[in-house]
Amino acid sequence: MNTLSFQQQQKAERLTDAFRLFNELSANLTHSYQGLEEQIAKLNRELAAARDERLRTLVEKEKLASRLQQILAALPAAVVILNAHGVVVDCNNHALDFLGEPLLGQLWSEVVSRSLQPVFESPHERQLRDGRKVNITHNVLGNHAEQVILLSDVSEIRSLQETLVQQKQLSAMGEMVAGLAHQVRTPLATAILYASQMNRSGIADEKRRQFSAKILERLHYLERQVNDMLIFAKQGRMAMHGFSLDKLMSHLREAKDGFAGELDIDNSVGDRLLLGNQDALRGALLNLINNAAEAGAKKIRVRAGAGVGGIDISVADDGPGIAAEQCAKLFEPFFTTKSNGTGLGLAVVDSVARAHGGTVSCRSAPGAGACFTLTLPCSNQNALSLSAGAAATENSHEAV
Description:
- Its EC number is 2.7.13.3.
- Residues 26-60 form a coiled coil.
- It holds the Pfam family PAS_8.
- The protein is 52% helix and 19% strand.
- It is of the alpha+beta class.
- The protein folds into four domains: 1-74; 76-153, Beta-Lactamase, CATH 3.30.450; 157-233, Signal transduction histidine kinase, dimerisation/phosphotransfer (DHp) domain (Helix Hairpins), CATH 1.10.287; 239-400, Histidine kinase-like ATPase, C-terminal domain (Heat Shock Protein 90).
- Strands 2-1-6-5-4-3 form a six-stranded antiparallel beta sheet, with helices on both faces. A five-stranded mixed beta sheet has the order 8-10-11-13-12, with helices on one face. A two-stranded antiparallel ribbon has the order 7-9.
- α5 crosses α9, α6 (245-253) packs parallel to α7 and α7 (278-294) packs antiparallel against α9 (345-355).
- The longest helix is centred in the first third of the chain and has 73 residues, at 2-74.
- It is rod-shaped.
- The protein starts with a helix and ends in a 13-residue tail after the last helix.
C-alpha cells in the first residue's frame, strides 16, 4: 500500500509540474501574442502613415504634372521631344501649329525637310511654310537619351530689327550723300577738264591718249564710289546664287595687272561650291586689296582656308599697319584715315560679310602690316537633323 501511495504521489507531483509548466508556457505565449499584436498595430500605423504620405506625394505630383502640362500648353513657343533615335515622342499645340501634322512618331529629319526652310542670313533660324521665322535651340534631357527642341517665333522681332536698320540706313544715306558730293564732284570736274582738252585742234595723239587714260581713271573711280554706295544702301538684300570658290579667286587674280607689287592668290580648300553674291564678295575683296595697295604695301597675299564652321578668306599685306584705336573704328561708315577717302570701302566690306551671315575682322599693328579676314559660315541643310540625333549623310559639297 505504501508503494502504491508513493507512486500516486509521484504522478500527482509530475502532473503538478506539467500544469505549472503549461501555465508558464501559456503565460509566455499570451505575452508574446500581446507583443505581436502591438508590433502589428505599430506596423499598421506606419503603413497607414506611409500610404498617406504616398498618396500626398502622388497628389502633389499630379498637381505638378498638370501645372507643367498647362505651362507647356501655354508657352508661346513650340516644344518637341525626341527620343534617342531622333523620333518625335511628344510635343505641344504650338509645335503642331508650326510644323503641321503628322508630327508624333515622325523622324525629326523628315519634319525639318518638310516644314522648315533655311534662313540664309541666320544659321540658327528657319522659315515656316507660312513665312514666319523661328529660332531653334535644342538641349539634351537628364537621361542623355532624349532631346528637347524649342522653336520660338521671331518674326515680329526681325521685322522690328529690319525697320530699325532701315531707319539707320536712311540716316546713314543722308550722311553718305553729303560726304560723296565732294568725292564725286572733284573727279567729275577733272574728267570734264580732260575731255574738254581732247577737243582742242592740233593736239598730239600721245597727249590725247594721256587725257583718255586720265578720263577713264576718273570714271573708274566714280564707278567704284557709286558701287560702294549701292551695296551699302541695300545691306542684307542681295541676290544669292551658287558659284565656285575657284572662280571667285580667279577673278581676284585679274587684279595683278593693276598692282605694281607682288600679289599672291592661294586657295587651300579646293573648289568649294559657295552660296552668295559673287559680285559683292569680289568687290569687297578688291576693296581690301586696293586699300592695301593705296597704303603702300609691296606684297599682298589673299588666302582662302578652312575656318571654324566655314571658310576664311584673308587679305594680308606688308604695309605700314594700323593703330589699335583706328582698328576699332575701321568698319564704321564714313570713318577714314585718307585725306580723300569717303569711309565707305570697309563699311561696304562689313555690310557684305553680314549679308552673307559672316564677319570681317582686322589684325594689325603699326609697322607690322595688316590682315583682314572675311569669315563666311557654312550653311548645312542637315545640321538640325544631325544635332537631333537622326542619322544623316554630309553632302559632298558644302554650301556657304
